[in-house]
Amino acid sequence: MARDTSERLEFALTAVPFSIECIGWKADIDLYRPLFAQVINQCERRVFQKEKVPASEKIVSIFEPHTDIIIKGSRGTEYGHKISLATGRSGLLLDISIEKGNPADSDRLMPMIERHKQHYGKAPHQVAADGGYASRKGLNEAKAAGVDDMVFHKKCGLQVEEMAKSRRVYRSLRNFRAGVEANISCLKRVFGFNRCTWRGLEHFYAYVWSAAIACNLRALARIALG
Question: pTM here?
Fold first, then answer.
């Protein structure tokens, strides 16, 4: 049925006479017809041929074809773009990275630290990260990059003494990381991070950064008011 519809559209494009009224209609057909073909292709491969289609070759939305598939373990599958963010003691958002695809958190630890060094001139003195970022390789690389205390919310086989200079520092940074969850919740509830309502990839970027700026402006106002 999908192929039949696509073929009928092909015939209609040649049969409909040119007119000003049809320009917009033909533009929509030219835009969506290749996406139709890709959806049909991935469906045939996955359902009929039992092939495991790579996420990079899939389209999950013909209206937002840039959308990535985000697998979040036991929490199921979501669609959009993965965002890595860094925040400081002040509550200000220090950096945001809109990722491509669905990279593992552990693969994003060092890129985020390197971005911090580029933006601020040196590595952060202390870093507290979610348990998903934990790995021995990441810990060693972070220490080599100049991070004194690299604490993960979950130990994941690492020793406290390897991550921080003392158990007190470890608990302090771990508690700080837990508090960041409140900032993330605020970004979702107040500033719209749970769902982008602007169409197109460029507008997605603009939506995320405008929300981040609004969040930081509020944080600066609170700091100024004491």
Answer: 0.78
